[in-house]
Structures are given as C-alpha cells and as structure tokens.
Amino acid sequence: MITFKIGGIHPHDNKIAKNAAIESLKLPNKVAISMAQHLGAPATPIVTKGDSVVVGQVIGEPSGFISGFVHSSVSGTVVAVEPRADIVGNMVTHVVIDVEGDIWDESIDRSEGLNSNIVASQDAILAKIKSSGIVGMGGATFPTHVKLCPPKDKKADFLLINGAECEPYVTADDRLMREKSACIAVGTAIMAKVLGGCKSYICIEENKPEAIAAMTAACSKYENIEVLKLKKKYPQGGEKQLIDAVTKHQVPSGALPIEAGCVVQNVATAFAAYEAVQKNKPLIERVMTVTGQCVAEQKNYLVRFGTPLSYILETSGCNLENAAKIISGGPMMGKAVANIEATTQKGSSCLLMLTKEQTARMPIGNCIRCGKCADACPMGLEPWLLYKLSENGNQFDALEDNKIFDCIECGCCTFTCPSFIPLLDIIRVNKVEVMKIIRNRAKK
After folding, report:
1. Under 8 Å CB-to-CB from 77, ≥6 apart: which residues?
2. What is the pLDDT of residues 322-344, one digit of tens each?
3. What pTM was estimated for this model as a whole?
4. What are phi and psi of 82, to 5 degrees?
5. 86, 140, 173, 432: which sits with the fewest CB atoms below 10 Å from its CB?
6. What residues does each domain of the chain span?
7. DSSP E strands, 320-381
8. Cβ pair 133, 69 in contact under 8 A
9. Which is higher by pLDDT, 82 or 361?
C-alpha cells in the first residue's frame, strides 16, 4: 500500500469523534478576530470602533506579499481594535465585534445547490482566492494564492490534496470529505485549472473508508482527479512525506515542494476554494473537532472565526476540572492552550482535552544510543545528535550542518524514545535560533 519510505510511527487513532456529523455552532455574543491568522505579515485592520459590519466584509487587508485578507465572520458593531493574547499568550491585534443578528454580504451565494460549472479564468480564480483570504487549512496557514503561483521557471506536474489527517483524535477533514465530497472535487478542479490542468490526487489514509468512498464517487466524473488510499502511518500528511508516498519524488533539503513538481493543499482548502470561486464566500468559518475523554459529547462543529475557546468548551460540556491540558490541534503537533479566552482562527482544526493521566511525563532517563529516534524520523535526521548539540549550547553551526532546519517538528522522536527524553522540546527551541541566523545571513 502507498506510503512514504523514511521513518514514521503508528500512534493509536483515537478518532472518537469520527461519527459526529458536522453541526453549526451557535454564535457567541462577541467575537475577537485575529489579524494574524496566516503565515507571514499580519493583516492591517481597516475598521475602527463604532463601525457596523456584516458577515463576509473585509476587516483586515494584507500588509505584505505573504499575508492575507481577513473578513468579519459575524454581523454587528466593532467595539474595539486592540492587542489580545492568542492561544500561547502572544499579543496580537484583534477586531472585537458585538454580535447583532446574522446579516451576510448580499453578494454571497448561500444556496445549498452544487455549482460545478467552472467559468472563471485562471487569473480570476487566483484573484478570488486571494481576496477571499484563503490559507492552507492543514495547520501551516500559508496563503493559498502564493502557493498557487509557482516561479515561472517551475512547473506543477501534480496537485496533491491532503486528506490523510494522520493526527490522532482529529476528524474534521474526515467529516468534511464525507459530507462535502462533491464541493471538494470541484475545489480541486479549480486549483488544478490555476496550475495549468495538472494531474490531481486526493490522498486519504485507509482508516477513513467512508471518506474514500465518498470522494471516489464525487471524482468519478473528472478524468484528471484520482483518489488514492494510503497506508495509515504518521506523519503521512506532511508535505514531503505525501509527495514521497504518491509520486516517489524527493524534495531536496531546504527546498519547497514545487522543486519536485508538486503543489500540496489540504481538503479543507479545496473546499474553501470552491466556496470562494463558485459561491463568492470568503473564508470566515471552518470545521473543528472538539474531542477528548473530558468532553461530554464528541463534536465536529462548523465554527466562525473569532469564537472564544471558552465558549466552545462550555457549549461542548467539557469538564475543565478533569482536563489537565487543552491542545489546539492534535496531540503530536498541536499547541498547548495557555489562554482559553483566545479565539478560533483559520488554522483551528481541533480542540483536544486531555486528562492528567494522559499528559503525565515519565522520569527522563539517559540516552542509550538505541537509534530508535533516528529510525522514526521521517526526514532522515538524527534527533539524538541534534538534542545533544542543542544541550551543549551555542552549537548553531553544527546544528545547521546537521540540517536542524529540515525538522518538521512531528514529534516522532519523542514518541519513540525509551528513555522518555523530550527530544523535540529542546530541538524546537534551537531550530528557531538557527533559522534566525539563516534569515539574518540572507539579508546581508
């Protein structure tokens, strides 16, 4: 069965919300919409206190090439434009809106019918994706219009639509593929058109048979779109791992997927592209899994951006006394939530509540040079060496020589370590420092 060659692990699925159909979360009384919902420069707010807004109205404009538009997800009155803490405690500019009804921009097509007739030109599609604020919704939140514009000397031979969803617990993409398969197929065709009509693969792990069946049926009318069943292995959804699995092409160290003739997009991004181009709907909401043993009822909510996490937890019946840790995303690559008053963003795929027993750390032992971390690393790195160099301090040249910048922070090394050494924790900190040095060097 199709999978990537190097490393990987097999954590338990824990897809306990997979049978929970998507349902719209009731709007809160107030939202706080971040201007930094994408990789790159934060958007610049274009509304002020006292302004009235409707759903789909632009409230933030991009402030650089790698940046994005931000739209209001609700209708109401702007009560503040101010710095607020995000999920990890960083202060970021937010537009705070009191929710008053649910009035949408009149240009948005809210009908349920499928629009599969793609009439827009390549340039028009690209402009619509950009103006709709669409970003990669698999976690990285890279602006989609930039990804769909490879350099003139590079050609996209393949468009890979990532439906692997290999993170434990997360089921948002699974439900989206089951319930919106036809829309995703059209969204895939839209993005393939921008890239010149390249071959497209929708890639789904074997543990999602219902999604595979739904997407296969939806894509049957498209000659250039094929659904592939992948072996269940983490981190199958990593760009370089997916490219290796499907095309057998290798992305060079430090390079982007286009160097291997590939563009990778998430299934939720394909759905967002469909809604933008065919329905004139900007990116204002997404499917988000709310799960864990502390949750009274497993949910896959359609959540408007700017919704407070505390509101979602309360609505879901989460027992906060039993939740030792709350994670935004999955348990392998998600971020621990330091502030439950933070709000949802374009990259918010999951809210996971873990118990004290699930998050307890074992006593850290000594490295026994077993090599399990190196065997598990999907990037072919030597995590034990990067850890030792990081521990020694100021070994940045050696860390760069050993390609710490290629680390995708998947956590496979920590997962496999028999001595329970938090390898990734130390590596991640030093990777940031090495990347700073590389960027500063490039400016000179």
Report:
1. 50, 51, 52, 53, 97, 98, 100
2. 888 999 999 999 999 999 999 99
3. 0.96
4. -155, 160
5. 432
6. 26-108+282-357, 122-279, 372-443
7. 325-328, 335-336, 350-354
8. yes
9. 82
